[in-house]
Structure formats: C-alpha cells, structure tokens
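Appendix B, record 7
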Amino acid sequence: MDNRDWAIVRATPLFGAMPQDVALSIIGTKPVRVLDKGSLLFQQGEPAASFFVILEGWVKLFRSTPEGTETVVSVFRRGETFAEAAIFLGGRYPVSAATVTSARLLAIDGDVLRRRIIEQPQLALSMLASSSYHLKGLVEQIEQIKSLTAPQRIAAFLVNLAPASEGSCLIELPYEKTLIAQRLGMKPESLSRALAKLRPLGIRVDRENVSVSDVRLLARFAEATDQIDE
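Structure tokens (predicted):
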C-alpha cells in the first residue's frame, strides 16, 4: 500500500479507532487485490475467513434464492469496510459479494483480528464503531425507501455522489442503472420515470453521465417533506 491507501484505511471507523501500530499488525504485508468488474469475492454460506477495505471501486453485497433471484443488500464504495461482522457471527458469510466496477481491495485475515481482540479486549470498541457505522447506514437506507418518493431517493443518491455541495456538476454513475434501481428499492422502469421527473430541477442524463445544474436545489428537493410520488 502507498500513503494514500494507508490514509483511506485509517479513515475507516474500524482502523481509525485503534492505535496505528495495532492496525499495522492486523493488516500485515498482504498485497492489494486488483479485480475486474464482476469478480466474486465470496459466496453466501462460505466460511468467513476475511473482511475487506475498499481502496478503489464499488462492491455489492447480495443474497440469492434457490430459484436464482438476487436481492441487493447494500453497495459499498471507496473508504468503506465490509464483512467484518461475519467473522464473529457464526463464522459464515450471510451474503455474497462481488465487484460492480473494477476495484482495488485490501483483504484482511479474520483470525488475526480475533486474536488481537483476545489479546487486547479494548479493540472490541473498534468493532463496535464499525458495526454502528454499518447499522446507521442500513437504517438510513430503510428510512429512505419507506419515507422518500422515488424521485427523492434518486436525488439523495445523486447528492451523495456530487463532488460539491453547491453549484453545477457532472456526475458519472458508478455502476449500471439496474443495480442503482435495486439499491434504491425500485424497478428499472421506475428509475427512468423518476429521473424524468427531475428534469425541472435541472437534471440531464446522457447514458452514464448526469449533469446537475444546482446541487443545493437538488438537496432541498431530496429533503422536502411534502413530495408526492405520482
């Protein structure tokens, strides 16, 4: 890892809450994994041997039914960790994980973290910090699906991706629209209709690029309490 990668690792709730020397001892000297889009990291039900830090790219967590239906549980981005709780909860991954873009990931041995926590029980606070972060994200995701209209969900998604908090900007959608629709709790055709309803707010879509004329206006729309999903 270079200094930029290390800064990303130290900014995570898990590793940012522990002393630097302990974080280094857990991470070790394993090389960064460089993966193509669509690479499977682990499958639902497999023994949970590792957890991950995303240095670049996006990763989806999903569950599959025996009939082959896939449900996206969450999508993670650069600077986030995932699967750390699985190494403690029964020792098996409750979901599958795959890259949805090309990605650079750091895979960390779960046994090493378990041993460090046994040796230094105060490190359990780092796990709690990471678990609380993931729980907060899940609660916010459920709240958005239940309380926001489809256009508002897309607006909030775009605001989260915007490189600035005001003014105009161009956003490149990080992964395909079908997955975005799943992530936001809607069907692909509903996503297209909802995007069309954002045009009066200065939203223009050209394939994978979305131009936003006023990020602050879009944010106010996403937070409004009097929207009706037609």
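Remarks on this record: Residues 3-144 form a domain with the Jelly Rolls fold (CATH 2.60.120.10). The first strand starts at residue 33 and ends at 35.
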